[in-house]
Amino acid sequence: MNDPHATGLLNLRWSQVLVDALAAAGLRELVLSPGSRSTPLALAFLRRPEIRCHVLLDERSAAFFALGIARVSGRPAALLCTSGSAPANWFPAVIEADLAGVSLLLLSAARPPELTGWGANQTVDQHGLFGAHVRAMYSPALPTADFAPAYLHRLAARALADSCWPSPGPVHVNLAFREPLLPDGELAEIGAADCCPVIRVAHPRLLPDKRLIADSAAEISGRPGVIVCGGADYPPDFAEGVAALAGRLDWPILAEPLSNLRFGGHDRSRLCVYYDVFLRRRSMVALARPEWILRFGGFPVTRTLQDWLRAVAPARQIVVSADSRWRDPQHALGVLLQADPTAVCEALLAAAPQCAPAHWRVLFVQAEAQAEALAGRYRCRDNFEGALIAALLDRLPAGHRLFCGNSMPIRDLDAFSGSAAKPLRFFGNRGASGIDGNLSTALGIATEGPCVALVGDLTAQHDLTALAAAGGRDIVVVVINNGGGGIFGYLPVAALPEFERAWLTPQRIDLVAAARSFGIAGERAGSLAEGLATFDNARQRGGATLLEVIVDRQASTAQHQAFWREAAADDDGKSSAASQTQPWS
After folding, report:
1. Is the pLDDT of residue 188 over 80?
2. Do residues 440 and 459 share a domain?
3. In this protein, which residues make up the domain named Thiamine pyrophosphate enzyme TPP-binding (predicted)?
């Protein structure tokens, strides 16, 4: 095609058909980073009112922002950027989406094939850019005058479907355009695109194998066992289903905070949330020897629970996976049920297994009560992260969202969150468990409503430019500043002379001033009481606030170590050496 105006008009019409098809397939959120080669697609999206467009300059931050949107909504979110190095900046979030099973649609604009490999500026071979971290990758042909709208409708429907089932995750669509990207002259609305029938896609509910359920129910009937619920985006009815199953078996449920089982109106009578305390005791580990373990969701976060699962390895493990992934890093499973987790609970419940011996759950009830009392004493202390977390959760209204950063915050949340009937919703990036993109993810979650982000100082600095997108969001970012990578202070590297330079890495950045430079409120608190008062004011004021809470690292480390020593102490007052020297994974 030699007519420049016609080429630009073709690019825009082609883009409009694709965007219309994505809207028809159910896409409602796009995160756009400005650029030239993506211009026809960007314009088509911006003129599609059903799709909410968020414009973020930094592609790395934009990708984590889209990840947060997809997490909180439970639906795919799309990304759009220009060609060159721009899509490569998505890679960390793509890895997280892959490992965490979050649906993302990656729309990268590209240079035409005749430029790739010939030294043309800003031209990168983007085909297969994300390797095995995407569920599918498509490179449709360049727009031509005789393009088929029906194909684009099917491509849009298929790409979104691929991101959702059978294993949720990112899908990459690489879209090349020739110049000129748009027609000359003013760009008024160019009219409705060619209409195609809506393509409806239904994802199945995976039901467990009846024979395997019958066999499993017979084997666990009357036996001592434990249900372990790791972090996952469970179906809405899972909490009721797993609680009912635990009631039938009379098994305890060891529920991690990101399972979202600790808070809510469901039956929590068999819930254990202080296992990270009582499983440090040698006497408890010796007595708590289940014959069966039923695991849902991701593999546990805390080393204590991981070590306990390894210690009771003769116990048979039934692992329930809602997709094709094997969550078995210890290679200990005996039964893999690839099915909807609620359906598994319902099927096992219907098989009417007998409950465990009466003394079994009593052991966990007593251990939980003792651990709760110990944690309660530490939750009243000053200059202690566990006390801050508990107090923040007490202040959150029902239904509030909390994003928890990695390293120390997620482990303190696990140990000190407690449990309550008030519903709260917890999020975290535990796929790759990195500190990158945490603020961006939290801001994406805040697009659905008020959110609190709880992160460490290095995590905040690592993603500081995300605050450019904080304006207008209802979010309080609570930064626990303990002077660097405090988590490493619990590991053997703390004794090395190079510890401070290469692991602790204390920073000198003024986080409050940085927040204000992005046009949001910045506050600093030097004590727990001051921090909570400032937090209350920030929540009542609304909008975006970064609250930096200064924590004395050495005092905090000492209190954590004292807590774990008490947690690990048996009746004879002696503690496990491992629990004293390396309490964190």
Report:
1. no
2. yes
3. 421-549
Contact (Cβ atoms closer than 8 angstroms) between residue 68 and residue 447: yes
pLDDT at 212 over 80: yes
Instruction: Give the pLDDT score at 573.
Output: 54
* Inside any domain, residue 193: no
The reply to whether 257 and 288 lie within a common domain is yes
pLDDT of residue 100: 96
Residues 235 and 277 in one domain: yes
Q: At what angle do helices 385-395 and 528-541 cross, to 10 degrees?
A: 30
Q: Which CA distances in Å does 561 have to 303, 416, 418, 485, 576?
A: 15, 15, 20, 16, 12
Does the pLDDT value for residue 581 go beyond 50? no
Q: Are residues 445 and 574 in the same domain?
A: yes
Q: What is the CATH classification number for the domain harbouring 424?
A: 3.40.50.970
Q: Are 110 and 137 in contact (CB under 8 A)?
A: no
Residue 367's domain comprises 210-372
Asked whether 252 and 293 are in contact (CB, 8 A), the reply is: no
Q: Where do runs of H (alpha helix) occur along 426-505?
A: 438-445, 457-462, 499
Residues counted in the chain: 585
pLDDT at 577: 46
Q: How confident is the model at residue 338 (pLDDT cuts 50, 70, 90)?
A: very high
